[in-house]
Amino acid sequence: MALQDYKYEHFLVDSPAPFVAHVQINRPKKLNAFHRAVWLEFRQVFDRLSADPEIRAVVLSGAGDRAFTAGLDVQAAGGDFANASSPDASRNATALRRNIEEFQDSVSAAEKCAKPVICVLHGVSIGLAIDLATACDVRICAEGTRFAVKEVDIGLAADVGTLARLPRVVGSLSWVKDVCYSARDFDAGEALSVGFVSQVHKTKADAVAAGIKMAAFWGEKSPVALQGTKELINHSKNHTVAENLRYTTIWNSVMLQSSDFQTALMSGLSKKKPRFEKL
Amino acid sequence: MALQDYKYEHFLVDSPAPFVAHVQINRPKKLNAFHRAVWLEFRQVFDRLSADPEIRAVVLSGAGDRAFTAGLDVQAAGGDFANASSPDASRNATALRRNIEEFQDSVSAAEKCAKPVICVLHGVSIGLAIDLATACDVRICAEGTRFAVKEVDIGLAADVGTLARLPRVVGSLSWVKDVCYSARDFDAGEALSVGFVSQVHKTKADAVAAGIKMAAFWGEKSPVALQGTKELINHSKNHTVAENLRYTTIWNSVMLQSSDFQTALMSGLSKKKPRFEKL
Amino acid sequence: MALQDYKYEHFLVDSPAPFVAHVQINRPKKLNAFHRAVWLEFRQVFDRLSADPEIRAVVLSGAGDRAFTAGLDVQAAGGDFANASSPDASRNATALRRNIEEFQDSVSAAEKCAKPVICVLHGVSIGLAIDLATACDVRICAEGTRFAVKEVDIGLAADVGTLARLPRVVGSLSWVKDVCYSARDFDAGEALSVGFVSQVHKTKADAVAAGIKMAAFWGEKSPVALQGTKELINHSKNHTVAENLRYTTIWNSVMLQSSDFQTALMSGLSKKKPRFEKL
Amino acid sequence: MALQDYKYEHFLVDSPAPFVAHVQINRPKKLNAFHRAVWLEFRQVFDRLSADPEIRAVVLSGAGDRAFTAGLDVQAAGGDFANASSPDASRNATALRRNIEEFQDSVSAAEKCAKPVICVLHGVSIGLAIDLATACDVRICAEGTRFAVKEVDIGLAADVGTLARLPRVVGSLSWVKDVCYSARDFDAGEALSVGFVSQVHKTKADAVAAGIKMAAFWGEKSPVALQGTKELINHSKNHTVAENLRYTTIWNSVMLQSSDFQTALMSGLSKKKPRFEKL
Amino acid sequence: MALQDYKYEHFLVDSPAPFVAHVQINRPKKLNAFHRAVWLEFRQVFDRLSADPEIRAVVLSGAGDRAFTAGLDVQAAGGDFANASSPDASRNATALRRNIEEFQDSVSAAEKCAKPVICVLHGVSIGLAIDLATACDVRICAEGTRFAVKEVDIGLAADVGTLARLPRVVGSLSWVKDVCYSARDFDAGEALSVGFVSQVHKTKADAVAAGIKMAAFWGEKSPVALQGTKELINHSKNHTVAENLRYTTIWNSVMLQSSDFQTALMSGLSKKKPRFEKL
Amino acid sequence: MALQDYKYEHFLVDSPAPFVAHVQINRPKKLNAFHRAVWLEFRQVFDRLSADPEIRAVVLSGAGDRAFTAGLDVQAAGGDFANASSPDASRNATALRRNIEEFQDSVSAAEKCAKPVICVLHGVSIGLAIDLATACDVRICAEGTRFAVKEVDIGLAADVGTLARLPRVVGSLSWVKDVCYSARDFDAGEALSVGFVSQVHKTKADAVAAGIKMAAFWGEKSPVALQGTKELINHSKNHTVAENLRYTTIWNSVMLQSSDFQTALMSGLSKKKPRFEKL
User: Could you report how far apart the first and last alpha carbons of chain B are, in Å?
Assistant: First the structure.
């Protein structure tokens, strides 16, 4: 496969199973913290995977033992927001608006990626870690992961996705507000019990292996079905039931003409593993 | 009561308690699978119950020991989607659109039914079973129920309600996406822990009895209050808080003029069981 | 501080910790039940706290041992809805509409309060108690609390907030409909397991102490960050992800120019407690 | 063609041009007024035309010289709303709600009809006439047409479509409110100048001929293109630009695979009249 | 009637016809410009008229010959926005937000007024004049009126209603953007041709007389019908057709039980002027 | 100024007045028709102008005497949509979806451009010409312009913006549907009378001069005010009045802190031309 061409400065991308890409944030010495160059590259990686017919499922994790990501690399990112130096608040605001939009768009690339993304968290997973994790589809983690919606502690409201998505991702709004207002840590057990993560594994290695196994299982499915399911669930969270049903009708009016439908039916009858065309 | 007139080919309808209808999908030899004639009849049953003043609560279950429903009767339903035979994709799409809409409308009849509906699941409860269950109000099940959002395994995204409603019905989006992407089985315990079902009972008989007991309890309540509560909660899931409060205001500006309000207050003071007029 | 000036007939307001207001519903002999004068005063209290720069977090509880609130004081409130006496249903409806709107607006004052509100429940917490609790941000309770969405039992659909907010506050819609249709009691353990409350404490005193401790912890945070977080989460529950991200961008384009950002960063580096300007 | 099978009690349906149906309200002695049987039949006619592959455009007019329609046949319709006889306002409301929904659904059949509908108005065109006309796509009229949004004069707010659609159909909200509040007459010239109608013709016969000519012109177009255009414009009026663009993308991702695209291109090059397959 | 009790510092309120209130902005020496005390009083006047059963229609005009209103009284209003004096942009923003909301709410009182409002413009009608006019229902003016959306010329985007409502009030978005970007004057003829106003009269006196005549005509109508029509058209501009139809159904399910319906029918048959109960 | 660096293959960009950019589609021999390379460049040009502090207003026109644009360059664009060659309709649809999105995003760049855009049309202005024109803010044209929403005549529904925006741009929906269904030509006079264009000039040269004059007039205004006005009007067309007012409040809570506000006030008092800082 052509994943060998995915060469990036801040990310490692390989393919541990057929149709699966594993993306690692690769700044372990910096606790995988982000600055502008990192988030722009993050977007490039996911935009490319989204359109790559060789890939049907993605795992996102952080390199090294210590952190999925510790959030913003404040030192390195200092300059990224530095234009707020005009004496005119409205002109500063315009500059900041452009920065925030660009950063939001980068994080949203995981949500917009046509293929489902599993986020595997471990170690320090604070601030931006939650923004990234909520933009993914399924979350699993290692024991010992330290989670926190940390933004209030640096004097701001989280603005690249956590506040938009966390209330859609877990059921208890009381819990969401507790962790967002207090910026307190929560651990893997708490994350599991509120439904933020779906699985907790002993070690980071176990968690990554479980993520890859899940992705590999998805990778055997019809890509038409899998990508359609992601699209329609994400649409559902943003629309009424009636609008989602209508949109689904239009979507499936062409997707049901896919050969995958026949392929899946046939392989179901013959008990053989189906082979689906690229998408 | 007049439920004796509810004669249908694929459904059994009786009244095990005052104001309660029990609807059973009645194709046990076919694992209660649906084809077009079945879903059209399903809609007729629920549209009729919705307007029947003798009925205040409904229980939906599947006849026989093996299945609530195994989903589509692929053999029998083969012809239902057969019109996709034109060489012109847009004309196929138009035909498919009409089929999907009709099928969606049938499933939605449980949601649109003015009276609350309890879905009792047991045995094989896959594919369409989840679409039907999420269109009902409360879900309870028997131990040993085998649940699955099965559509991905037949090469398509679920299109008659599961993807629209499941994210509104349980809190953990990570779990929703896990079961929808993987098409994996989940059992009664898992269904309970994520909040998909509210109760698990030893046997199907126990679960049905519990469903009927719950429906009978509701049946003693003011039908004005009960139907208003269903309407307003369903509205709430599709609108902002402000819009729902406004809609509620208009709704209750007439409903508070109901005699049920007086009846309930009086019986509360006198400790007698209230008797409400038909609705 | 100036909370000494918060003199109200039906509420006690004091400040048990820096930047924290504790509001107690103060009609213990009447189980803290509400009539029109009470809810109008409730709104005054929260509107005032919302704009008071001395306050950064609020605790709401009920005075006395027996009840957070038993709901409407039917006797006293009798007259509040009495104008429904015209023989003309449309004119009654117009009068009722004004009453309901006023009552809804009063309850919504807790949600609109710019500062986060912790609701501490104990004892009898039925009917209006749930409307109030869901309009707050975080809910905690004492063991032995008796919860119920009681409105169906008095012949009406809840209309001052429960049906609008409860489906947003907990994840399991099956549970929401169960308790709303049946008007049955549920206890602290059930409330915790479904995510309605975040903590359960032995006694009312423990629960109030825990609420105050949480509020005091929040009170040390940047008020710009804290109030922004409340605003953006509440916005998120009513809008699409895309709309919320956009709104967040505009909001933070000015809020990131706050001195709190610098103050928080500096105190993080120096390990000193930050001191934020009033807001 | 098979329009000869369109036999109805209150409507005449014929085909004055290829692919065109002309529907006439056929109660000229009653000024084409509607009661329940009429509006139920209206829905049947349009639902059938919507799915009839022989038809690509529809003209709606009123038989006789005197009226397009004078609105409700109050005498005959008396019984249609008569169930409002309970002493209980909430039960009356429930009955009325069902009546209004059914009537709205009937009128909306013109809007939901997959094929575009031209409404030709003449003579008395008041009350329901405006509801019907705004549910159609294009409006033309004869000189001497007497228009009025008449409902306020019978003590009610228009409820089967005028208030929902008129503000979307003409640009000046000041004019919309003027005619809706006052129930005053307006004539063909005024209707043209505000954009309510697109053409005014000398006589009813001229107007009908013009309507048929326009429909015949549309009938020569690609039905895939024509029906898609209706669907997408109607969607546009109810959604944001971004949502409409997305919906359009999905819609055209299959519709561009139509043979009509090739057929139209080819006939454009060869200057021959294209012949499109049925839809 | 009791309008004699409407005593205000900045407004004259009298009743030139049965059921009609005429509200005049009464600062002619200051070209009827607004500062904070004026807009707070404006809200009081309209909130009171909204609930006053003696009033069914309202006319709003400006006292004196020179202006409907010249907008903000910059001198007097200087202090109203003066709190923007903190060196902290986020704290200034919070203060400004409260000011803008209060001002918006005041202007919106005309839109929220349950009774329809006719705005009669003359002379200088710039800036706030357009915000006020678009919050009214029908606009008429005198020849020689000088209109302008003036805000861009004082360095800001209009923020108390013009940008929100003007695109809903006239049809041509090209024209809306032209006048809003350029801040150029437009005259009565242009206002009429784009549909911003419905009538142009020779003099201010003629325009006021025409406004009062129109209001008096409305005042003879069923107040249930009139107020319902305003509510439903305003709702329509903010919702989809489907949502508006649903809302209309609930609204009319009680309003059709009004005695006005019978009264209007009867008087129609007997050719007598109907007399409706207060609302 | 630095516009000299705006070197593009298919567009000419110069600055005929301070702060004004004039963008000409520069394929006059091909009637300014577009293929993929053209629309990708179109987006680049407008994205760059959007962020260029030297530019405050933009004019878009077509080079040469014959056409603003004749739409798609079918020959050259043939390959752009050629991937629809799989026998699998769902895979074709996926490829088409990506193409349509990219094309839509390109056209939308004019709408998203922070600076207002005047579209000057002349000669052949069909198909894509309308998509482009409706994405601009103000439209003016030369006599003799030939307009048509041409897509139906090539067998498809317009999909890069016309159907989404035209119903928001002119008031008469009857007219919109007439021209979209029929694909008929309309001329400058008709375009003016329905409000599609704001001005008609004798010649193309006159129209371009008028566009530049209008842009130059805007260019003298506060850029904070001008860009805010564009943002808020566009937001208004996609949201409710209440949502737009709220968004406006947040927007202006920082924008009112701009120095432009002071600058404009001062220059108003001193009757001097204001000089605003870059934005």
Answer: 15
Convert the pLDDT of each residue in E29-87 to its tens digit: 999 999 999 999 999 999 999 999 999 999 999 999 999 999 998 777 766 664 456 78
Length of chain C as a residue count? 279
Instruction: Choose, out of D97, D163, D166, the residue to mutate when testing the contact with E (most E CBs < 10 Å).
Output: D163
The per-residue pLDDT for range C159-204, each reduced to its tens digit, is: 999 999 999 999 999 999 999 999 999 999 999 999 999 999 999 9
Contact of A240 with chain D, judged by CB distance below 8 Å, is answered with no
User: Nearest CB to A159: which of C224, C230, C252?
Assistant: C252
- Helix, coil or strand: residue B127: coil
Which amino acid would we find at residue E55?
I
Instruction: Write phi, then psi, for D121 (nearest 5 degrees).
Output: -105, 150
Taking the complete model, does pTM exceed 0.90, yes or no?
yes
Contact state of D152 with E232 under an 8 Å Cβ cutoff: no
Residue percentage of chain E with pLDDT more than 90: 87
Of the candidates F92, F163, F237, which has its C-beta nearest D248's C-beta?
F163
User: Token pair for residue A97?
Assistant: 């608006």
Interface subset of C 32-51, CB within 8 angstroms of E: 51
Chains that touch C (3 or more CB pairs under 8 A): A, B, D, E, F
Round to whole Å and give the CA distance between B240 and C238.
Answer: 5
Cα–Cα nearest to F130, from F109, F114, F107? F107
E95 CB within 8 Å of a chain A CB: no
Closest partner residue to C247 among F247, F254, F257, by Cβ? F247
Q: Which residue of A has its CA nearest to F261?
A: A90
User: Is F241 in the E-facing interface, judged by CB distances under 8 Å?
Assistant: yes
Mean pLDDT, residues B198-205? 98
In whole angstroms, what is the distance from residue C179 CA to residue B243 CA?
23
Q: How far apart (Å, rounded) are the C-alpha atoms in residues B224 and B227?
A: 6
Chain D within 8 Å of C26 (Cβ-Cβ)? no
Please answer whether residues B42 and B111 qualify as being in contact, where contact means their C-beta atoms are separated by less than 8 angstroms: no
Q: Residue D242: what are its φ and ψ, rounded to 5°?
A: -65, -45
Cβ–Cβ contact C254 with A under 8 A: yes
Q: Rounded distance, CA B210 to CA B225, Å?
A: 22
Helix axes D162-169, E241-255, angle to 10 degrees: 140
Q: Report the alpha-carbon distance of residue C267 to residue A154 in Å, rounded.
A: 9
Give the whole-angstrom CA distance, residue E129 versus residue E238.
Answer: 23
CA C81 centroid distance within chain: 24
The answer, for F250 touching chain D at a CB cutoff of 8 Å, is: no
Judged against a pLDDT cut of 60, whether residue E9 lies above it is answered with yes
Give the A window 177-236 contacts with C, CB below 8 Å: 177-178, 180-183, 194-195
Q: What angle do CA B251, B255, B256 make, to 5 degrees?
A: 115
- A20 forms beta bridges with A17, A57
Q: Classify residue E34 as left (phi > 0), alpha (psi -120 to 50) or beta.
A: beta
C242 in contact with D, Cβ within 8 Å: yes
pLDDT at C192: 98
Within 13 Å, how many C-alpha atoms sit on residue D112's CB side? 18
Is some CB atom of chain B closer than 8 A to the CB atom of E81?
Answer: no
Residues 6+ apart with CB under 8 A from F78: none
* Interatomic CA distance for residues F17 and F144, integer angstroms: 27
Q: Which of B88, B93, B255 sits opposite D277 (nearest CB)?
A: B88
Q: Which pLDDT tens digit goes with each residue over B53-98?
A: 999 999 999 999 999 999 998 777 766 664 556 789 999 999 999 9
CA–CA dist D47, D68 (Å, integer): 21
For Cα atoms A44, A47, A51, give the angle at the middle one, nearest 5 degrees: 135
Element (H, E) at E13: strand E11-17
